[in-house]
Write a structure and sequence with these properties.
Elements lengths: L11 E13 L2 E13 L4 E5 L6 H8 L7 E6 L2 E2 L5 H10 L1 E3 L11 H6 L11 H11 L15 H12 L6 E5 L7 H18 L2 E5 L3 H6 L2 E6 L2 E2 L3
Family: Belongs to the ABC transporter superfamily.
GO molecular function, one term: ATP hydrolysis activity
Organism: Kitasatospora indigofera
Length: about 230
């Protein structure tokens, strides 16, 4: 058994997952309250709901950025809620995560930003060659040397997507990937993400306020006040 999802797409299963955050000395807020979901391999699924509904918290738990207070999460063959800290780090390296604010390193070129997640680890592929290939795939061939400050918001998000693909993940998570983009650029990023999913067969889970993006996914998981909405 491996802690890193393998194959073209990873199955995802969350069972009665709960996560609360302290809001005061004697108060807490249930961000995710008893959520159970099952996502089949290779599906593109959106997490939707108003601000504070729990969609980003659920996504972060799938990515092992947050640990649930209770419940279990399985991704591929791994029960990530039972992994040690060291094995969780290995799991995170094996999935792809795209954030709303890009999180590019400002002093690094586009190419080096793509390489950054695998820089400290051994790989069975040429890191620079794969990074160049991925920048070409996301439409940034020839911009390898550009710093983030010289790229538009849409281009920076494309670099972030290429970075998320560097390990050929079976699971790609995206947290409001169009939230900082204008509608036209956002639509182009949506098209890119869904085309990549179709080509590579990976499972994709996207937290979004964008109804167009949600509608373009295979299915929607709707949340409100930390709970699933039926229908």
């Amino acid at each position: 058994m491996t802690d890193t999802p393998t194959g073209s797409g990873a199955a995802v299963r969350a069972l009665d997952v709960r996560k609360s955050f302290r809001t005061g000395a004697d108060q807490s807020l249930a961000a995710v309250d008893g959520v159970s979901v099952r996502i089949e391999p290779g599906r593109a699924v959106s997490l939707t709901g108003p601000s504070g509904s729990g969609k980003s918290t659920l996504l972060h738990m799938l990515g092992a950025i947050e640990r649930p207070d209770s419940g279990s999460i399985h991704v591929g063959d791994a029960e990530i809620t039972a992994l040690s800290r060291r094995r969780l780090a290995a799991y995170r390296r094996g999935i792809g995560i795209v954030f709303q604010r890009f999180h590019l390193l400002p002093a690094l070129s586009a190419l080096d930003n793509v390489i950054a997640p695998v820089l400290p680890v051994r790989t069975d592929f040429d890191k620079r060659a794969r990074a160049r290939e991925l920048l070409e795939v996301v439409g940034l061939g020839g911009r390898e040397a550009a710093l983030p400050s010289k790229l538009s918001g849409g281009q920076q998000q494309r670099v972030a997507i290429a970075r998320a693909l560097i390990n050929d993940p079976a699971l790609l998570l995206a947290d409001e990937p169009t939230g900082n983009l204008d509608s036209r650029t956002g639509a182009a990023v949506v098209e890119l993400l869904l085309n990549l999913r179709a080509e590579r067969g990976m499972t994709m889970v996207i937290a979004t306020h964008d109804p167009g993006l949600a509608d373009d996914c295979d299915e929607q998981i709707r949340l409100r006040d930390g709970r699933l909405l039926d229908g």
